[in-house]
């Protein structure tokens, strides 16, 4: 049983949990990050050891916790709009910490583990029928940058014009934003026959994720001595990663969500993280 990646993830999250508690005195961060870290570590462990639905179960657990408990009941806007909102307020809590850990600094260690094991949008998209994309990738990646700028500009304008009840506006942005993302994600998946089409073209979070995950310590690697270049891994990859090229500059290298479908399908057991 392979445990090194899981232990690394668990250790990092526990360190984060206790460090943030030390600086903020807020016990929420201990159980929040301990729960997320343990869930992701268990998900990676199950996936590495061939459990078919391990990753989906973990993603449903973490994604639902963040969406329903922290987002809806806790009133925290964890979307990109919430990140800018809390950042402009100067509040180093909530969405700002969430983004720093899951989407800005953390991916330097665990890449896009967020997308593979915790995202509440993808937890639903991954249940749709198009797990392996059947169409060629579109040249629509610019959409994420446009959306990123629009969201930043929108929140900036709210602050510039000192709009009242920003807390309430942010809560409704979280609800409406998620509803739009779910509808768009499902429509795109059916239209393009690709469950992860939303992640590839629309999700504005990937503007952060793609930069930091380029340097990720945890990444899928191919043992060239074992590989027979049958190409099975490339065919099954939901994110069109050029797996056989070990370089960080490989095509779609910053798209890898560590789902390990490639490793599971490799007939020579040549792929590892
Ligand atoms: S790309 Fe966006 S929607 Fe897709 S899994 Fe990552 S954060 Fe979630
Ligand atoms: S390269 Fe492997 S682990 Fe990464 S997204 Fe593709 S199939 Fe999943």
Q: C-alpha Rg, in Å? A: 19 Å
Structure classification = mainly alpha
Question: SSE order, as H and E?
Answer: HHHHHHHHHHHHEHHE
Enumerate the spans where pLDDT stays under 50 for 5 or more consecutive residues: none
* Structural domains: how many: 1
**What is the count of helical runs?**
14
Helix percentage: 55-70%
Q: Terminal Cα separation, in Å? A: 14 Å
Order of strands in the sheet with the most strands? 1-2
Note the overall shape. globular
| Main sheet properties | 2 strands, antiparallel
Describe the secondary structure blueprint for this structure.
Elements: H1 4-24, H2 28-48, H3 54-73, H4 80-89, H5 94-104, H6 107-110, H7 113-117, H8 122-125, H9 142-160, H10 166-192, H11 197-201, H12 206-213, E1 221-222, H13 232-236, H14 261-265, E2 271-272
Antiparallel strand pairs: 1-2
Helix pairs in contact: 1-2, 2-3, 4-5, 4-9
Bound molecules: iron/sulfur cluster (SF4) (2 copies).
Residues 220, 237-239, 241, 243, 256-262 line the site of one iron/sulfur cluster.
Account of the 3D structure:
The chain has 14 helices and 2 strands. The protein has about 270 residues and is an all-alpha fold. It has one domain. The chain has a two-stranded antiparallel ribbon. The longest helix has 27 residues, at about 165-190. The model has no long low-confidence stretch (mean pLDDT about 90). The structure holds iron/sulfur cluster (2 copies). One iron/sulfur cluster (SF4) binds near residues 115, 199, 203, 205 and 206. One iron/sulfur cluster binds next to helix 7 and helix 11.
């Amino acid at each position: 049983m392979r445990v090194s990646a899981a232990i690394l993830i668990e250790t990092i999250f526990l360190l984060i949990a206790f460090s943030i508690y030390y600086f903020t005195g807020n016990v929420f961060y201990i159980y929040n990050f301990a729960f997320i870290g343990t869930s992701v570590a268990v998900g990676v462990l199950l996936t590495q050891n061939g459990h078919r639905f391990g990753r989906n179960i973990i993603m449903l657990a973490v994604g639902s916790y963040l969406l329903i408990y922290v987002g809806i009941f806790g009133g925290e806007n964890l979307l990109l709009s919430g990140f800018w909102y809390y950042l402009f307020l100067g509040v180093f809590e909530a969405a700002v910490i969430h983004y720093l850990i899951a989407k800005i600094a953390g991916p330097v260690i665990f890449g896009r583990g967020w997308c593979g094991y915790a995202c509440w949008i993808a937890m639903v998209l991954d249940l749709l029928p198009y797990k392996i994309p059947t169409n060629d990738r579109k040249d629509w990646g610019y959409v994420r940058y446009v959306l990123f700028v629009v969201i930043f500009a929108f929140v900036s304008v709210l602050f510039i014009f000192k709009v009242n009840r920003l807390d309430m506006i942010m809560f409704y942005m979280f609800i409406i934003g998620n509803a739009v993302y779910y509808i768009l994600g499902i429509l795109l998946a059916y239209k393009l026959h690709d469950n992860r089409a939303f992640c590839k073209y629309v999700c504005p979070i990937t503007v952060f994720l793609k930069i930091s995950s380029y340097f990720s310590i945890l990444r899928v690697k191919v043992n060239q001595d074992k590989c027979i270049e049958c190409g099975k891994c490339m065919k099954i990859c939901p994110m069109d990663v050029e797996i056989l090229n070990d370089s960080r500059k490989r095509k779609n290298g910053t798209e890898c969500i560590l789902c390990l479908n490639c490793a599971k399908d490799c007939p020579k057991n040549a792929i590892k993280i």
